[in-house]
């Protein structure tokens, strides 16, 4: 909660903007038509968001903020640390920016204050080497690693980039913060380039998290070993491709990653999710031979060999999805076909745009 705005004042603001109808779910608050952000429901959600802001300026994750915090949440607010994981903080800042922009001169000053504190939180959380930890202030454990996982750092960089360039809905951001944001983005890009893994002298991909000191691939949870990531690497490549005038280093990074994606794609198999009422997630996840199936990419690839790997809560690396326990097999995203759009559409367009031979 913001130390600058009393709790009772914020509660009054929520009530004053109109009842929270709950018509829009928290996971969809950034997917609404422009007119929604000028309406009573959006203002009420924005007022509710202010109640969840931590003294450091960021927001916790995995919380429905379309409604004000419960008494239980407030009683244990210290357990809800600010983070960039699972789209936390970047979602709240973007929502506030949408509401501030839609309201114009009638925007509540509390929204702008909260936005600026959150924006400054992101800038303060950046390491000197350009990366971002999962939590700030820092928490012991893998949380201190530079976090590409689930596009956490990419989400931050995209917000700062759009703010630095004055893109909607961040046109109101002041010049000083735009300048600082632009510098942070350049440092972030440098970190991405420096942490790209080389194999036999060739640039490949990235791990879901990298050591904050050495930039080497680093493990996270027991089922998330140090490895090359088919998911997070896609987000990093797509972000690098948005740089208007890519440097030779950026071009080399994209080319290396695309070549790696081509090399490690899985063909002749598809992923099925057969019902399994007796299993923890009520379904299983299996790879089935299918010569006609489109390519798949694994979540994790072994460093050095590029073999797909699967790890359960025992932290033992295995090479077949069927060998890990049912709870992890069905409760985690192990494969994706998303890189196919990069190879077939985005990458060729990028090369054409920049007149690459």
From TrEMBL:
<protein>
    <submittedName>
        <fullName>Pectate lyase</fullName>
        <ecNumber>4.2.2.2</ecNumber>
    </submittedName>
</protein>
<dbReference type="InterPro" id="IPR012669">
    <property type="entry name" value="Pectate_lyase"/>
</dbReference>
<dbReference type="Pfam" id="PF09492">
    <property type="entry name" value="Pec_lyase"/>
</dbReference>
<keyword id="KW-0456">Lyase</keyword>
<dbReference type="GO" id="GO:0030570">
    <property type="term" value="F:pectate lyase activity"/>
</dbReference>
């Amino acid at each position: 909660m913001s130390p600058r705005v009393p709790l009772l004042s914020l509660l009054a603001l929520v009530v004053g903007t109109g009842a929270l109808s709950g018509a829009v779910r928290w996971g969809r608050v950034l997917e609404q038509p422009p007119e929604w952000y000028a309406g009573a429901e959006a203002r009420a959600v924005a007022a509710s968001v202010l109640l969840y802001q931590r003294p450091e300026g960021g927001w916790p994750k995995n919380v429905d903020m379309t409604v004000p915090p419960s008494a239980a949440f407030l009683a244990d607010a210290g357990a809800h640390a600010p983070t960039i994981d699972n789209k936390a903080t970047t979602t709240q800042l973007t929502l506030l920016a949408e509401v501030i922009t839609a309201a114009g001169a009638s925007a509540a000053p509390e929204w702008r204050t909260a936005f600026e504190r959150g924006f400054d939180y992101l800038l303060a959380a950046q390491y000197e080497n350009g990366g971002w930890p999962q939590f700030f202030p820092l928490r012991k454990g893998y949380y201190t690693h530079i976090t590409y996982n689930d596009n956490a750092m990419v989400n931050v960089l995209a917000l700062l980039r759009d703010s630095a360039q004055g893109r909607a809905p961040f046109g109101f951001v002041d010049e000083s913060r735009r300048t600082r944001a632009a510098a942070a983005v350049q440092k972030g890009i440098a970190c991405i380039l420096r942490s790209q893994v080389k194999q036999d002298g060739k640039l490949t991909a990235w791990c879901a998290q990298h050591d904050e000191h050495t930039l080497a691939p680093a493990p996270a949870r027991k089922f998330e070993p140090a490895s090359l990531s088919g998911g997070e690497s896609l987000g990093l490549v797509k972000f690098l491709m948005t740089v208007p005038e890519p440097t030779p280093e950026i071009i080399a990074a994209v080319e290396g990653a695309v070549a790696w994606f081509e090399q490690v794609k899985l063909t002749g198999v598809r992923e099925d999710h057969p019902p399994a009422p007796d299993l923890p997630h009520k379904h299983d996840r299996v790879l089935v031979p299918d010569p006609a199936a489109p390519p798949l990419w694994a979540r994790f690839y072994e460093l050095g060999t590029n073999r797909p790997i699967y790890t359960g809560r025992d932290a033992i690396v295995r090479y077949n999805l069927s060998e890990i326990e049912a709870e992890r097999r069905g409760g985690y995203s192990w494969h994706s076909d998303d890189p196919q759009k990069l190879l077939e559409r985005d990458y060729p367009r990028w090369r054409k745009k920049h007149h690459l031979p």
